[in-house]
Specification:
172 residues, alpha/beta, Rossmann fold, two-stranded antiparallel ribbon, 26% helix, glycosyltransferase, PRTase-like, transferase
């Protein structure tokens, strides 16, 4: 990507735990022109793909997925932390670089056979995106790929996912 969107990030050391350098997207969100450019760049990457729904991962993934869904005029589904979605849900637990977590999707969020693109702000170890994809597959749908704003290449998250279907705008 020719645009350097890394200037829209700031590093927060020791968050959420010691030794982690958190890539904060707040400066991007505070800049409507740059945020629009990021959404346009992400849309360009996926505009020709056959996708039924975008799956935004709790919580920053919602920001990118909802803006992309509106731009591309396709539906968006949320993968949330436990207890945040009403109705019947499907759950998946997973490990991440600083602990463990669980994601849930409403059981009726999409239909078997649908093609779902998983979206989040950052690809780190890949555990969260893999859990979201596992949920998609549990529900009989297909993971069409992954799209991230930032990829932390040194954490090798791409290896946990299908590398051919992983896209990101900024790489560290």
């Amino acid at each position: 990507m020719s645009d350097d969107f890394s200037s829209c990030l700031r590093d927060i050391p020791d968050f959420p735990s010691p030794g982690i350098i958190f890539k904060d997207i707040s400066p991007l969100l505070a800049n409507p022109q740059k945020f629009t450019e990021v959404i346009d760049a992400m849309a360009k990457i996926i505009e020709d793909q056959s996708i039924d729904f975008l799956l935004g991962i709790d919580s920053r993934g919602f920001i990118f997925a909802s803006a992309l869904a509106q731009k591309l005029k396709i539906g968006m589904v949320m993968a949330r932390k436990p207890g945040k979605l009403p109705g019947e849900v499907v759950s998946q637990s997973y490990d991440l670089e600083y602990g463990s977590a669980t994601l849930e999707i409403q059981k009726d969020a999409f239909e078997a056979g649908d093609r779902i693109l998983v979206i989040d702000d950052v690809l780190a170890t890949g555990g969260t995106a893999r859990a979201a994809s596992d949920l998609v597959e549990k529900m009989g749908a297909h993971t069409a790929g992954y799209l991230f704003f930032v990829e932390l290449e040194f954490l090798n998250g791409r290896q946990v996912l299908n590398a051919d279907s992983v896209n990101s705008l900024v790489k560290f």
